[in-house]
Amino acid sequence: MKKAVLSFIILLNLGLFAQEYSDYVLNYPNGNIKEKGVLHLGLKEGTWEYYSPDGKLMAKVDYHKDMLHGENIIYYSDGKVKEEYNYWANERHGRFYEYYQNGKPSLKGFYHSNLKDSVWQVYYENGNPQLEVLYRKGLRIKILNAYDLEGKQIVKDGNGQMINYFNSLKIQSQGNLEDGVEQGLWTFYYENGVKSSEGNFEKGKRVGKWEEWFESGKKKSELNYESGLNIYWFESGKKEMEGTLIDSKREKSWTYWYPSGQVRSINNYVNDLRDGVQIKYYENGNKQSEINYKNGLKEGEAHFWFEDGKKDIDGNFKDDLQDGLWTYWRTDGSKGNEGHFVRGKMEGRWNFWYANGRLWKEVDYAAGIKDGVWNIYFENGNKFREGNFENGFENGLWKEWYDNGVLAMQGNYDLGIMVGTWKTWHENGSKKSEVEYTDGLLSGKNYFWYPNGKKQVEENYKIVKEKSSGKFREKERITSVLHGSYKTFNIRGTEIISGVYYEGLRNGKFVYNNDNGNTVKIEFYKMDKPDGKWQTFYDFGALESEVNYKNGIKEGKSTYYDQRGNITFQSMFRGGRQTDVIVDDNPNLPQNKGGQNQYRR
Q1: Strand 567-574 versus strand 335-342 pairing type
Q2: In whole angstroms, what is the distance from residue 166 CA to residue 496 CA?
Q3: Structure-model confidence comparison of residues 166 and 293, the more confident one
Q4: Per CATH, which fold does 507-601 belong to?
Q5: What CATH number has the domain spanning 323-415?
Q6: In angstroms, rounded to a whole number, what is the distance separating the alpha carbons of residues 322 and 568?
Q7: What global pTM score does this model have?
Q8: What is the chain's percent helix, strand, coil content, to nearest 5?
Q9: CA–CA separation, 274 vs 20, rounded Å?
């Protein structure tokens, strides 16, 4: 017996294991595998393989709980290894190897928490060492050793004449190293042999005068990293930027230009901080903005313009924040909206206007939050909406009107939640609806009317708690559902549907009439399931069918009649299945043989 129980437990565990782990394969449209691996409870686990559309292996990647974790190998298209590195919990951590396509190493190093660390080794494509560089927490500390193409050491213990090469083996840069960092004159080149830049380093930092050139050989810049004039040119020879550094800090006026030669901006600096007026221009020469600064912060008047020269915005700043009166203009030159800011937040009454100059909105703010009056108007001057906000929420009585001045809606909010009786009207002034809200949910009796004053719908709502199953526990929400008498009418006042709901479910008798008031269908429900005798009628009142239901399925006799009252088809149902045909005088009538839960509606 114990052996049997043990065997059962083992089989059960194996079954659970099989359910937890599953193979996953994703294919390209051509049918070739794109990626494949194992999922554990829906998460990537173990080694996954990735392929190109033509079926070549591109990468092997290790995962743990959907995170990159373990060895990663990237391949060239010929199958040779391109990169090998490790991840730990989604971070690069551990050795990093990179290879040329000939199989020889190009780079070796170590990552610590996504940052380069320790000594990194760089190799030429012929296999000879090129560089040894020390990193610490992602920062290059110094170059330790360097070698030329033939393997001759040119930098030892951080000292020597350094030469870097492009992949084409043309010189990329050259200069002196002292204690592992650049020192003295360094020259950089484009791959075509033209100088790209030249200047001096002091302990790895650029100092003094530096010059840059375009690949065409034309002057690109003259930069003074400590003190002096700094200039950038476009390749056309026109200036792009000009400004002065004093003790490596921006001072005085700095000017920027468009390629056309038109001034783009003028910026003033004191001790590397913006100070004074800063002006920007459109390329057509018109001003774009004029902003005052003090100690690097916006302070004082600020003006903005559209490209055609018309005003866009006028305002003020204090301590880099909008403060005081701000006015916004339309593109046609008319005022768009206006109001005050305090410490960067809208405050007090704000007004908004239509293009014709009429008031569009008047709204109140407190510390950037809607608080107080909120009035909106139609373009003809009539009011559209009226109400109040309190601390960002609608509160109290709110009203809306049609543009002809007729009241369209009114109701109350309690801090953003609809409460009490809400009423609406048609544009002709007749009542449209009257509904009740409790804590934002429909409740009690609700009525709707046609524009001619005839009732359209009469319904009742109840607030209930609904439960739904969440991933770990049941969730509960409060909602409103139909509950009680339910009636609809046509525009002439004729009753079309009448019935009863119980907490959102049809329950009891439902009667359906045509526009003339003649009954065309009678249904009985028990908690939204058909239950009892269902009848349909011809438009002139004669019985068309009688079908019996129980608990949602056909049960008992089903009978169909022609317009003269003759039985054309009659059968018996048990448990939703047709068991006997008593009369069959109409072979074209669907018999629903053997069907379940199928009923004529």
Answers
A1: unpaired
A2: 85
A3: 293
A4: 2.20.110
A5: 2.20.110.10
A6: 84
A7: 0.72
A8: 5, 65, 30
A9: 62
